[in-house]
Amino acid sequence: MDDNQDSPTGAVLPLPQAPDAIELRHLRSFVAVADELNFGRAAGRLYLSQPALSRQIRALERLVGCELLRRSTHRVELTPAGEALLDRARRILADVDDAVAVTRAVGGEVAGRIARLMEPMTTMAGSAELQELRDVNEAVLAEFPVPSEVDTRSVNAGGVPSLVLTPGPDRPVTLLHLHGGGYVLGSAYGYRSLAGALCVATGAAALLPEYRLAPEHPFPAAVDDAVRAYQWLLGRTADPATLTVSGDSSGGGLAMSLLAALRQRGLPLPGRVVLLSSWLDLSCRHLAETGPSAMLTLSLEYAGHYLAGHPSDDPLVDPFAADLSGYPPILVQVGTGDPLAPEARRFTERAREHGVDVGLDLYPVDAHVFHHFWSFLPEAGTALSRIGAFVSGARRPRRAVEA
């Protein structure tokens, strides 16, 4: 036994302090390059020029006194010292972002801004005609910025009118995003902000299809359109494993329907799936467990428009009834205050029981599809960064993570 055990100072070893000159921007730059393993993509993600990013990394290496990244003409890789720093730097940045988010939340700035943006929809929900809701929804979506570096062009994707969003030159279209809106609202044009942010985060160009909406076009119209758009992507890639399918809210449910339809038709599955605050249960049984709410009322109405009498427990529309075995890795993200959070937890558990490599990220946010607010909400920026790492393969899905 150590003779110094009873001493109040005998077991304490002094730790060297970090240099005072290390700044958060140095750590953010390092983490971005470590995630991307590419200075160009990391610079775009941080809205920096490539030379400026290189200077940040060199400054950090001088301050810590060792090489963190090895660069060559064709590749970038972490040194052992860089690997040791990476997870710790992530935790530092997450803690700082959390502290800022909490501080802002206490002051009401962020919550108030979100409420003001969404007020036109929340005040009309349940009391307006569908077309009026569609018009107001498009007006709300138009308030969200589109990343300045993202170019947009229209395409005909297997007969489905669509947009292609590109975050830079020579980026292959490897991301298919299915927008939300309860299968009755939303458009490809309206979702350019969210899809553009996903493009910047992943470094990939995205296909944003204008799938048909209910009640004019009930199930299976949206699923058929998603399949055709996906087949258009398949025809432009040599390896389906490079493709990612993402969806927000009802678009997440449509993404799961797409996987089931691809399996039924013997078509190859994508390499990864990302579900953002997803509405997966059209029977709304999970949502109803939290009690009456405006979201429950609207969800039941929208599900009725979409299903038009079709059984809600059909595995093609209900991932809780489908066989999920053999599905690709899935990343699920949701705010802890979102009424759909319990549903996300249950889906994650079920997917894991079926052997799916699935991770659940939980964020201390009340807003549904909080990713829309990426331009000012720290949690949204963190979530998008994690999506970028997941899509690039730098990080595997994890078990439930409180961010």
Description of the molecule:
- The structure is a single chain.
- The chain has a nine-stranded mixed β-sheet with strand order 3-4-6-5-7-8-9-10-11, with helices on both faces. Strands 1-2 form a two-stranded antiparallel sheet.
- It starts with 23 loop residues before the first helix and ends with a strand.
- It is of the alpha/beta class and 403 residues long.
- The protein folds into two domains: 24-104, Winged helix-like DNA-binding domain superfamily/Winged helix DNA-binding domain (Arc Repressor Mutant, subunit A), CATH 1.10.10.10; 108-402, Alpha/Beta hydrolase fold, catalytic domain (Rossmann fold, 3-Layer(aba) Sandwich), CATH 3.40.50.
- It has helices spanning 24-36, 39-46, 50-64, 80-107, 109-124, 130-141, 192-202, 221-234, 250-264, 285-288, 294-307, 341-353, 378-392, and strands at residues 69-71, 76-78, 151-157, 160-166, 173-178, 205-209, 244-248, 272-276, 330-335, 358-363, 401-402.
- The chain is 44% helix and 14% strand.
* Rounded mean pLDDT score: 89
Radius of gyration: 22 Å
Number of domains: 2
Report the uncertain regions: 1-16, 394-403
**What composes the largest sheet?**
9 strands, mixed
How do the strands of the widest beta sheet line up side by side?
A: 3-4-6-5-7-8-9-10-11
Name the CATH class of the largest domain: Alpha Beta
Question: What order do the helices and strands follow?
Answer: HHHEEHHHEEEHEHEHEHHEHEHE
Shape estimate = globular
Q: Count of DSSP E strands?
A: 11
Q: For the record, what is the CATH homologous superfamily label of the largest domain?
A: Alpha/Beta hydrolase fold, catalytic domain
CATH architecture of the largest domain: 3-Layer(aba) Sandwich
- The CATH topology of the largest domain is Rossmann fold
